[in-house]
Amino acid sequence: MRPVISLPGLELLIQTLQHSGIGVQLDPAVPGMPGAGHPVLEEPFDPYLATLYARCNGGRLGHLRLFQGVGDRGLMTRNLEIRSEADSRHRQVLRFATLDSTAYSLGTVPSLAASDGPQPVVMASDYIDFDVFPLASTVDRAFRLYALYCETCLRKYGGKLDWNPAGEADNVSFPFHFVREVAQDRELVRLLEDGRFEALTAPAPDSRDWVNQILAAARASS
Predict the structure, then answer these.
(1) Domain for residue 3, yes or no?
(2) pLDDT averaged over the chain?
(3) Of 20, 41, 118, 153, which has the fewest beta carbons less than 10 angstroms from its beta carbon?
(4) Cα 133 to Cα 84: distance, rounded to the nearest angstrom
(5) What is the sign, positive or negative, of the torsion defined by CA atoms of 199, 204, 206, 212?
(6) What CATH number does residue 29 fall under?
(7) Number of domains in the chain
(8) 134 found inside a domain
(9) Residue 61 has pLDDT above 60, yes or no
């Protein structure tokens, strides 16, 4: 029997947004979603995503929009559309959420799953270079990182969220403002040190630079 998985990072994100009156709307769960390890687009389904979709059928968390698990524009349909692109790297990421008004999505990398099932999370773009930015070793750690981003924005901008993917120096940007926090994820750092993300990140200069920043921060804190 698989252990029961909790989502404290998701709970922190919900509490952070609700405390400031930011919209949180999770749709009621529906039957038919696969369980942990069951095949989704020929890859095992991440156990944290299985827990998430047992709780809701997608929804909105601030600027973060979770794909529906079941629906015409749901998880399966959206990923099939994206995977029709020529770049084979698209097929290595199972996207489960998108960020408002951007071409960025959050997704797991099933091929890099841990022995007990959890899959690391990246932020992937659909631009020409297909940038991939490793974020966390699990879906829930990615939620915790996004909660930190929201908390930082709300504190800096007087109770408002400000989405800034370009990473201007004066603004809080996700995830680029949080290199040190990402570098504290030892399992993610181990994967990066072992070159496990290289096939996804090496072709894109911005992705390579992000990985180097994380590794440098990890070395500085060790």
Answers:
(1) no
(2) 89
(3) 41
(4) 21
(5) positive
(6) 3.40.1580.10
(7) 1
(8) yes
(9) yes
Q: How far apart are CA 131 and CA 125, in angstroms?
A: 5
Q: What is the pLDDT of residue 98?
A: 93
Give the pLDDT confidence score for residue 135 in this predicted structure.
98
E strand or H helix at 18, and its extent?
helix 8-19
CA 102 vs CA 2, 47, 53, 196: distances in Å: 36, 27, 24, 27
Find out whether 207 and 200 touch, Cβ atoms under 8 Å: yes
Q: Could you tell me if residue 39 is inside a domain?
A: yes
> Confidence class of residue 5 from pLDDT cuts 50, 70 and 90?
confident
126 Cβ contact partners less than 8 Å away, ≥ 6 residues apart? 82, 85, 103, 105
Any domain includes 59:
yes
CA 18 to chain centre: 20
Between strands 94-99 and 64-66, the pairing is antiparallel
Non-local (6+) Cβ contacts of 176 within 8 A are 167, 210
The model carries a pTM of: 0.92
* Calculated CA dihedral for residues 10, 175, 188, 1, nearest 10 degrees: 20
Query: 165: domain range?
Result: 8-221
Map tokens 């072709």 to a residue: 203
**Angstrom distances, CA of residue 7 to CA of 54, 185, 216:** 12, 16, 29
Helix H or strand E encompassing 125: strand 121-125
